[in-house]
Structures are given as structure tokens and as C-alpha cells.
Amino acid sequence: MTETLRYTTSEMLAILAARQLKDGQVVFAGVGVPLLAATLAQRLRCPGLTILFEGGVIGAFVEPGKLPPSTNDQRCTKRANMVLGSAEVLLLLQRGYVDVGFMGGAQIDQYGNLNSSFIGDPAAPKTRLPGTGGGNDISSLTNMIVAMKHEKRRFVEKVDFVTSPGFLRGRRSRAESGLVAGGMFRVITELAIFGFDDDSRRMTVLALNPGVNREEVQDNTGFPLDFHDRVAVTEPPSNHELETLRLLDPERLFIA
Amino acid sequence: MTETLRYTTSEMLAILAARQLKDGQVVFAGVGVPLLAATLAQRLRCPGLTILFEGGVIGAFVEPGKLPPSTNDQRCTKRANMVLGSAEVLLLLQRGYVDVGFMGGAQIDQYGNLNSSFIGDPAAPKTRLPGTGGGNDISSLTNMIVAMKHEKRRFVEKVDFVTSPGFLRGRRSRAESGLVAGGMFRVITELAIFGFDDDSRRMTVLALNPGVNREEVQDNTGFPLDFHDRVAVTEPPSNHELETLRLLDPERLFIA
Amino acid sequence: MTGYEVQSYARLRENLAQRDRSLREKVMSLSEAASFVQDGMTVGVGGSTMSRTPMAMLWELIRQSRKHLTVARCIVSTDGDLLVGSGVADEIVTSWFAQGILWGLSKVMRHHVESGEKRFQEWSHMAIGMRFRAGAMGVPFMPIRSMLGSDVLRLRPEAKEIDCPFTGEKLLLVPALNPDVALIHVQRCDAYGNAQIDGLQFMDIDLAMAANSVILTTERIVSNDQVRRAPDQTKIPFFCVDAVVETPYGAAPHECYGLYEPMMRHMESYVARVNADPVRGMRDYLDRYVLGPKSWPEFLALIGMEEVLEATSRGRSIYND
Amino acid sequence: MTGYEVQSYARLRENLAQRDRSLREKVMSLSEAASFVQDGMTVGVGGSTMSRTPMAMLWELIRQSRKHLTVARCIVSTDGDLLVGSGVADEIVTSWFAQGILWGLSKVMRHHVESGEKRFQEWSHMAIGMRFRAGAMGVPFMPIRSMLGSDVLRLRPEAKEIDCPFTGEKLLLVPALNPDVALIHVQRCDAYGNAQIDGLQFMDIDLAMAANSVILTTERIVSNDQVRRAPDQTKIPFFCVDAVVETPYGAAPHECYGLYEPMMRHMESYVARVNADPVRGMRDYLDRYVLGPKSWPEFLALIGMEEVLEATSRGRSIYND
User: Fold this and answer.
1) Can you give the C-alpha Rg of chain C in angstroms?
2) Stretch B139-162: mean pLDDT, rounded?
3) pLDDT digits (tens, 9 = 90+) for B15-26
């Protein structure tokens, strides 16, 4: 590998996630890798992409080197198209204006359910986590892309607590519970890209990252993985992708 | 009578209505006599009175000679404390921020129900009237003062159509229908001032206007009136009241 | 008559998923924008009474002789007259329908509604607002505490009384209203449709979010750069707007906050004409003022430069102190 | 724990009828305003995360050692730490409770909540907003389409699932939240309490309308005359405000839109201190920064002039372009 093609896990996640977005989409993004990925997509291929923040921002304009540290502070509003109440921006998800919700994850299971509330028994938790924030609303109301580190303890058969619903217990259980729109679309890790089977709704390997084999993915996953009929191998980050990304975060706040 | 003490019916209604308001109240007012009366009360005795308009105005400041022609045009907002959505200003009634609703009336019955929708059978009306506007919301959600001309055809036993609920069929029928707050408080005409009996909820004469006797009121009313145990006689408009009122409407748009 | 049914969530989502919500310019002419409104649709109209009425858009719909529209607006004045009198609308969904406080009863409304030929569907003012709000929020209903016990409710089987599952109190659930198209006039917006509204908002924000498409007419088009300098002044976001039409004096002869007040001499001559004869009077008015002019500026010229300037100086005076 | 029960409409109306809603001046000191907050009350807190947190008011409540409060806020950061760590609050009703994205998990929250000594009542972010909105609208609930099927809902029996009477769809009804008191920090208001809020509004308008009383802290008090010149910029009307306290830098060390960004060095030293030892570290912090200073300006002096000025220049920079 040449110097320019070395990259960090975060850079890899941001670049692969960016490739999942389409021009013209409205994306509800968390800070960090999700925001970087959405902004990267905007710069590379999707000039008509719109980014929403939970704090109450529509069409934020992220300036290189001035990434907002959270979705609820004033930096998120710089050069935005609209600033509105935080209930209002979440209601846009419910009304249906948002195409993709994009966030990180702490613990995920085979049906794409996310846990950010409790490690262990909720009644007597080993760890009380920060909770859902807007995560439950986003994952209940639109199509989700999650970018997260791939560790066995994070990829479990059943999450300790369903904070943000994926496909719940699989099959039609999500729709039957009243969640008629949205669902987990893609999970992106440093090892692979995952989708969810249209019937079983179980996590399925769609593509392996360069230099990663099936065993490696399975060994780092706490449940038996399905593999797509034709598992692709993802193109590594290009020079152009890496350079554009690094321009956005010169201090390497989120891509280190 | 001296020159200064001659007055029109509208002047009489405005002045008697103004006397019904208390300092510090929040009053939801229609244009015309209601607005004049509320503004007059503000000038004479109630500096802390707040006037709301249906168009979306809080704490309007009415300048003498610049009375707004309707509650939905920009003149209503001149020097107001707040301008907000029209649903929002109506929701203030529902939340309970408003003490008094104040409007005119076309047809009223013995229980203080108002009709501004249909003359005759709603299925095949003799006249289709303009409808409720905010009238139904105001009369459903707060205490009402109505100022109107006293004619037999306007004071009927049962209105053709209950557009704005008074006490419906009397007794507890208003509360039982789900309207737990508010109700008709006073009706003011050129002949008398009416309240509503605490039990029967029928219209009751509280006070006769100067020079008016019981027969005259009854003769102009389409149902048998109750009279309070001690029917008072209203003080005629004072010089000060008339002068202040006439300053507010120098072109006599509403007091003619 | 979509105005009657609550649309299923799946259908609402599907409609929205189909819309192009990308950041794109969408400036077009009145006649192009009119193509978003098709016969039989339910149309939500912004503003209220004589304020920020999207009059130029309604004028264009009459010129293109749309038919069988159901039109919903919180309070309707002479705009309602024109819609039923011209034959464009079959039904008006509103809380109040007259020619304006100053003139009272509309002979045009009476003629068409009392004959049963047109319908006037009456809700309370707040109920109309809550129907738009439910539509804007993507839920099938809003709970309210008015209309209960009245005959207004008796004529509205579309609403449902319930006992509150939390308090046992009686409540009314009013059904979401998601118009096929919303017509809204604003003081300014950019080419993408980010709109700023000065002064009275009425129900326009909920209406814009509720509708399945939105046509903005605007007094002027400003740069997106200007919008981004004060993002907390944007009231309607670009992605719920499908067409932007720059139409100065687009609410005439009604008012537009801070720019012009109603053109009263024109309004008075209109009222005198149609109340004298709601059919021939209306036909004459439409021939002369709607079908006659070749363009909106020509219609304004018929109102007359002097009256337009007077209305403008009254309108701007709100900012004089 | 009022936060749990939906208040009856009769009770809500009664509470409001008792309040003095007249146009009157209500400027007072932090300590006077604190008297509106009594032990055991449910308190709604404005702003979100590290933005427009009414920190000076919370600081005063800790100094006056209020007890057994239930505190509701859309997203809670170090303000939540201080409320549970100081013993002022028994329960936090929120959607997210950490020290801020940059620092993640709060050791203070973990220590007090995992031991069962304090409670963290979790709702989705939108659900918190709809609970305030229902309270603001004077209705017992709002319908929403999130939380369904999740364990977040399983732990919230206060919410009720229904089948929609219009569409048959599953919906969740979240109960109105009408706090006894709301604490809100704004950029400016007049002596009557007419408040203007720049930039991010969060849920403050609904919170103000929902609460049974409202304490405003404000960066500055402007004349009512200035408010009346731009009435469409008023976000909270005077009659739902009970106290106005002029408190420059009243959100420090958090940010106030357009005026100052978070004071990060102070935040980082706080986080290091309490995460090293959530009990002794918190006690030390409170002794030095909350109980120690004689006044709010003295607390600001402890943050340090240099950091305050830096935060100010970053805060104002939002308007530099």
C-alpha cells in the first residue's frame, strides 16, 4: 500500500457509509462519522443532499474544519436553510420527509435492534447507558444506516434492551408492532457491509471489506451470520475519497 | 338630558360591556363593540387588561382613531406584545389563559346558545349565515360576554342551530357534553343586562337599562324571562365614559 | 372529496416518498404552477380572510377553469365567492364564509349554497387548525375540547367523540386534513422554496407540512445566501415546496403584511356588483377582472395605480413607528 | 411525582385561573424567583444538552438545597449531574443523560441511578416533546408513531397503545406533561416577560405554555416598547411568565445562542473531577463553584475572565459572516 492509501477505521466507515447515500435524499444525521459521511457524499456525488440535525436544523452547511461537536449547539445552525424546534424536526421524520437516518451504535443484534440504554438487566443494570435521545424516533420512522465498530460484544444475538427498533423479532414483527415505515437498511463496520433479508429480516453480509474473509467476520460476531448469494468485495477508499474526507476534518476530531 | 348625555345604542352597549371587565383579565375580543368595550375598560379602569385577537395577536394596543376593521388583518398587530399563529391563539383558550370571550350575536336563546350558521332548517336553510369562525371555540372554552341588539326575532326560546354553545339544554347539560369550563356569563343589550341562573342556567334579567321597564324587555323577547330577586337599574353612561369612548372611534365607525 | 377521509399512513408516506425533496430550484410561471392542481383535488389555501390570500394563484385556476375542487381554508372571504361563483370549487371547508366583516353575508355564497348546488362544510376555527396540524404531524387526528355539544359537531360525523383513556374526560378527535395541494403566498422565499413570512402566520406552516404538494407565490425571490444568514426566520422549508412563483402583489386586492393593505375601493365595487346579482354580477366581474386581463400585472392595472399605491403606503406604515 | 399523572382539565384550568396574568412587571432576584420551586415539585428545564441551560437558576436551587424534585428536560447533560449529585432531584425525565457527546457516559448518573437511589425515566426525544405539547395545548395526550415495539415503551406504562378510530393503525398516546414550574433561559425579554429567543428553540415554547408557572432568566431586559416593534419575534407571551431574572451569562458554562459557546476548559475540569470520584469529586465541585461564590458573577469569575471572553467571541461569531 502507498502512503496515501493508509486509512483509519473511522475513515473507512465514513467513506463506505457515504457511498450508501443518493443525491437528493434528506438525511437525519448524528455528529461524528454519520455527519462526516453525509457531508462527504454531498461533496463527492450528492450536491442536492440535505442534512438534518436533531437540535432543530435543516440543510446545515458544514464548513471544512468547523465540524459541530454535538447536534444541539449553535455551530450546527451555521449557514443552515432553516432552524426550527427540536420536536418539529423530529416530526419531519414522522410525517415522512426524511429518507435516511444515520447514526452510530453501541450494541446491535441479528435483527438490527440497537441498545443504548442498559448493559445487563434493566431492573438492575450492570451499566446504565445514556438512553435513546432521538434514536428510537429515527429508527422507528425512517430507513437506518448504522456505522459502528465490529466487536463480538457489540454484535449479539439479542440486545439486552431494544432502545431503537430494527426488525424486532424478525419477519413481520416490526410492521405488526405498528412501525409501518422504515427499518434497518445497512450496517457498516470495518469488516463488512450488512443488509437485512427481506423475509427473515436477519442481518446478512452483503460485502466484505478489502482483505477481510468470512471467518473473520463470523468470529467477531455473536450470532451465526447469513451471507448473501453473491457476497461482493468492497472497493477500498480511493485517494479522492480520503483527501476530501481529510479536508473536512483537518484536526482529525472524528477520523483519528 | 343634556347634549353630552345623548348616546347611541352601540355606545350604550360598549359602555355597559366595558363595566363588566376587571383589571388584569385576558379578554378574547371580536372587532366592533367588543373591541371598543375592552379598550374602553383598559382606558378607564383596567390598565392591566390584555386583549387577544383571533388572527393571532396578544396584547394589541389600539390607538384612538385607528380601530382594526377585522381580527385577521395587519392593523390588529400594531404595537402588540406578540403575534402568533391563529391555531396557537385559539389554543390559549383551551389551555385556560383567557378569562373572558367577548363577541356580538345574531340569534340567542334562553340558555345563551348562539346561532350564526343557519336561519331555518339546516338541511334546507332559509339563510345560510357565515358560520362560527372562532365563536364555537371561544364559547366552548371560556366565559362569554355577548353584546347584541335586543329584538324578538333575535331572542328566541330555542335557536335554529347551536353554533356557539351557551348552557345547551340548561342544568348540567353543558358540563355533561364535555364542556367543563366557561359558559355564558353576561348578555348586554340596549334594554337590559342578563345573567344565567346557577341551577336552571336560564337567562335572567339582572339589571334594567335606565328608562326601561320589565314589560318592555319581556315584549321584545321570544321566551318568558326570569327576573333576579333584586333587579337593579343600570347607571346611565357617564360623561367621562362617553367622551373616552368617542375619542377611541372619532369617525364613529362602530359607535354610530 | 379527499377532505373527508383520513389518508392511511402508508399512503401519506408513499406520496411523500415520491416527491423530489432535493435542494433544487423550482421557479416557474403561474400557469405552470397551476398544473399541480387537478380537477377534483382537495386544495388548502393559506392566509386568512383578507390577508395573504394566494389570490394570483386562485385567479389562474379560474382562468384555467379547474373543476370540482374541495377548498379548505381557516376563514374564507371574497376568495370563497370567486371559487364557488366561477364554478372551480364544489365545496368549501372552513369556519367562516362571508365577504369580510365590513360587508357581512355573501350573496354569492348564499345563492350557491342555499340552492344545494355547492357545499359549505363548517368546522370551528380551531378544529380547522387542528386538522391541518394532525396532517402536518403525520398522525390521523388531534384531540380538542371545543365543538362538543354543539350542532356544528352534529353536522360533522367525520369527527369522533371519545372518553379520554387517561382522564375519562370527553374529548373530540378531529381527523387529519392532508390537502393534495396547498397554495400559500409569502413575502419572500428563495428559488428552492425556503420561505419567510412576516407578521401574522395564520395556519400556513401546518398547512405546508400537511399538504402532499405546495405551491408558493411570493412577493419576491431572495438569494439562498440571504436565507442562510437568518435560518431561524425560515418558516417553511424548501423540501415541502414544489413550485415557486414570483408574483408581486400576488394577494391583491387582499393584503400582504407589511407591504400592502386591502384595496378597499376595488373590494367595495366587487361587493356591490356581486351582491346586486350573485350570478350576472359575478360573471361580469370574472369577465372583466379574471378572464379579461392578459397577465397579473394587467389585472393590477385594472385595480388602478392610485389604489395600489395607497394600499402600499398603508401596508408599509406598520413599520413606520 | 406529578410527572407521572395526567392532570385533570378541571385542575389545570383551576391552576391557571389562580395565576396573575395581568400586564405587570415581575423582575426579581435569583433567590426570590427560586421560591416558585418547592420541594417535591416537577420542574421542566428549557434548552437542550449544553444549550441555553438555565444554569444560574439550577445553581440557585442547589444553594437553597431544594429536595425531591422530578426534573424533565428533552436532553440532559452536566445539568443532570448537578441535580442528582447535589441531591436536589430524585428523578430525571429525559431521552438522553450523559455529560455531552464529547465525554460520553456520566459516572455521576451511573453512580446514583445504578444504585437505585435516583431514577432516570427514559422516553424518546419526540415523546418528551409531544408530552410538553399536549400539556401546552390543554389536552391529556398526543398521538405518536415512535416508541412502539421497543423496550423503551415496555418500561413506560404511563403511555397507552391504541388502535386508531379513523384508520385502525396502531398508535401510541403519550400523556401530557404539565410541570409545576418551568425554568427557561432566553437572550432577552421585557419586564413583563415577553421573551425573544434567537436560534435553536428546542422545546421551550411548548414547555412554557405547559407549565403551571414559568421562571425566565434572561441575558438582558429590554423595553416593552422594543418588544412591540417586532411582535412576531416574541416567542413566549408575558402572561405565562411569573418571574423575570436578569442574569447575564445565565447559561454558563453551557452556551447561549449568538452570545457565548460552552466554556470548554471549565467543562473538562468538571468532567475530570466528577468522573474520577462521582461522590467526593461532585462534593468538591459544588463546594468550590456552587456553594462557595457569594453571587453568580463570582461564579463566573471562578470560570475565569479569559475563558468567558473566549466563549463570548466564539458565540458571537455565528453572526460574523
Assistant:
1) 19
2) 97
3) 999 999 999 999
Selection from C68, C72, C77, C32 nearest residue C50 by Cα = C77
3-class secondary structure, A93: helix
Phi and psi, residue B94, nearest 5°: -70, -40
* Residue B16 near residue B40 (C-beta atoms within 8 A): no
**Residue type (1 letter), A219:** D
Beta bridge partners of D160: D173
Question: Please, what is the angle between helix C55-63 and helix C296-303, to 10°?
Answer: 110
Grid cell of A1 as nine digits: 500500500
Mean pLDDT, chain C, rounded, equals 96
> Would the pLDDT of C1 be above 80?
no
Q: Report yes or no: A76 and A68 within 8 Å, Cβ to Cβ.
A: yes
- CA–CA gap between residue C147 and residue D47 (Å, rounded): 35
Q: Is the pTM here over 0.90, yes or no?
A: yes
Q: CB-based contacts of C58: which residues, under 8 Å, 6+ apart?
A: C45, C79, C82, C83, C88, C183
Residue A245 and residue A256 in contact, taking contact as beta carbons nearer than 8 Å = no
D215: β partners: D183, D243
Phi and psi at B127, nearest 5°, equal: -140, 130
Judged by CB atoms closer than 8 Å, whether chains meet at A80 and C16 is answered as: no
**From the candidates D167, D173, D178, D186, which should be mutated to test the interface with C, based on the most C CB atoms within 10 A?**
D167
d(CA D177, CA D44) in angstroms, rounded, equals: 9
Residue D194 at interface with chain B, using a CB cutoff of 8 Å: yes
The answer to whether D48 contacts A75, with C-beta atoms less than 8 Å apart, is no
- The CB density around residue D228, as the number of other CB atoms within 10 Å, is 21
Cell numbers at C8, concatenated: 392511511
Contact C77, C83 (CB under 8 A): no
Q: Is A133 helix (H, G, I), strand (E, B) or coil?
A: coil
**Residue C276 in 3-state DSSP?**
helix
Lookup: cell for D261: 459557546
Compute the distance between CA of residue D123 and CA of residue B238 in angstroms, rounded to an integer: 60
**pLDDT tens across D183-238, in order?**
999 999 999 999 999 999 999 999 999 999 999 999 999 999 999 999 999 999 99
Cα distance between residue C264 and residue C250, in whole Å: 16
Task: Answer yes or no: B54 catalytic.
Answer: yes
Say how far apart CA B106 and CA A126 lie, in whole Å.
69
Per the structure block, which three cell numbers stand in for B228? 333576579
pLDDT interval class at B63 (50, 70, 90)? confident
Burial D139-178 (b: 16+ CB within 10 A, else e): bbbbbbbbbbbbbbbebbebbeeeebebbebbbbbbbbbb
Cell matching residue D216: 425566565
Chain B residues with CB inside 8 Å of C97's CB? 130-131
In angstroms, the CA B236 to CA A10 distance is 83
Residue B251 confidence (pLDDT): 87
Contact B214, B208 (CB under 8 A): yes
Neighbours of B240 (CB within 10 A): 9
Beta bridge partners of B101: B28, B144
Cell triple for D269: 475540569
* DSSP conformational letter for D161: E
**Which amino acid appears at position D155 of this protein?**
L
With contact defined as beta carbons under 8 Å apart, do B161 and B146 qualify?
Answer: no
User: Rounded to whole angstroms, how far apart are CA atoms B243 and B78?
Assistant: 24
Of D140, D167, D171, the CB nearest to C164: D140
